[in-house]
């Protein structure tokens, strides 16, 4: 990933920015960071989960891919999770917006899911998903956060307790996923992890 030279001190400046390209960026501490090409396996996992959520009778308009969320950090930061499940209140606040962006004034979504890119502790990819986003999503008040890590064959479900996430579990193989947001979920870790193969 390459970094653009633009630096933003306010989210409003970022929202007004247009570089005339279709290049997707995340905003990290006020700096645009070009997002790499998305792994087809990660896309397949997200689409599989969309189909599962629809079967759970989650309304289609609450399931989002490509929606950006502004998160608290040391500077201006926004993220593009692989999948977001909105609450009705969040959807109402987002409806009619010019851009699919959940701002700090809007209610938090119910669930954020990240499909982890390969990396080891101390490397950017690993630290971003396991450390940075965990802190940012907790500070944003998102009740549930899933990390799906195909390279480690694990699905980690975190639930917000106070201001920090607590692990509900690390699910592998035939382990059934436990989700406080979706107690009726009947899905095993292997089904999710194999969806991207």
From TrEMBL:
<feature type="domain" description="Putative restriction endonuclease">
    <location>
        <begin position="12"/>
        <end position="187"/>
    </location>
</feature>
<dbReference type="Pfam" id="PF05685">
    <property type="entry name" value="Uma2"/>
</dbReference>
<dbReference type="InterPro" id="IPR012296">
    <property type="entry name" value="Nuclease_put_TT1808"/>
</dbReference>
<protein>
    <recommendedName>
        <fullName>Putative restriction endonuclease domain-containing protein</fullName>
    </recommendedName>
</protein>
<dbReference type="InterPro" id="IPR008538">
    <property type="entry name" value="Uma2"/>
</dbReference>
<dbReference type="InterPro" id="IPR011335">
    <property type="entry name" value="Restrct_endonuc-II-like"/>
</dbReference>
